[in-house]
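Task card 7
Instruction: Convert sequence to C-alpha cells.
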Amino acid sequence: MIGRILRYAVALLFAGTSPVLAQVDRVSPAFQLTHFEKVGNDYFYRYRLVGRGSGAERISDVYLQITQPVTPSRPRASPIRGVFLFDALARESPPPQFGHPPLRIATPPNWSAAIYLQGVLSWGADRWAMGPNHGVLPNEVLEGFELISPALPALRRFRAVPYRPVATLVDDPAARDTTWILHTGVVLAPGWEASLVTGAYLMEQVRLACDSHLLENCGRYLRLSDDVIEAENRRNDRAYNRALDVFAAFLKEDKGSHRNATFVLSVTIDALRKRTPSQRSS
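Output:
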C-alpha cells in the first residue's frame, strides 16, 4: 500500500502537461502496440512495454493521453484485469475540464492503473523508494497492458518514464543528468466517441500525424482539414460533404504515408459523414 501511495505522488508529478498495425514513430519505441482488432462495437488494443536505457534504471510509469470533450454523463472506466486505483475525471466535483471515452482497462501483475485530472491514463509499477521495484529493466519486455473502447481509434501520445525517488531528484545533482530519458512517442489508442467528432478533431489527428512524420504532403492534408472546418462552421451540409469527399479521395490515393495515420483519418472521415452540421445540436 505504501508503494502505491508513493506511486500516486510520482504519477502526479509527471502527469500533465484485421492485422496488427505497425508503429513507426520510433525505430523501436518503449510502448508498443502488439494487437489491434474490432470486436462488435468495440476496439481492442494490446500493448507491451520494452525496457530502454542503460544500467539498472527501470521504466516504472507509462502515461497515455485519453482526453475527449466533457459529456453530460460521467466518463466510464472499468478494470478487466489487475488493479485499477481511481478515475479522477469521473469523481471530481465540479465537473473536470476533460472527459475520456468509455474504457475497459487491463493491467499487468504488480502494476496498477489510474486516470488523472489532466486526462492521462497512467500505468505504474508498484515500487518502494528503498525496496523492490516492479518496473522494466533495459531489454526486458512486459506484456499485459490492454484497452477496450467503442471510441474511434486515434493517434495518442505516450510517455514511458524511468523511476527515480523524488528525494534523489531533489538532493542529488547527478540524478538530473541526461541519462534520465523520458521515452515519448505516438501509438494507436482510443480517441473520441464517434458522436463527438468534429472537424477540429480531424485537424488534431492530422497535426499529430504530421508532427510524428507519419503523413506525407502535410500541407495538403492541413488545407483539406481547414475546408472541412470552414464548411462545418458555416453549417453548410453540401460544402461539408464535398470537403469530406475531396479529403477521402486524396486519402485513398495516398500510398506513401504510414498506414496507422491513413487508417485513423479514414475512420474519422466515416464518422464525420454521419454527423452533418445541420444534424448537430450546436
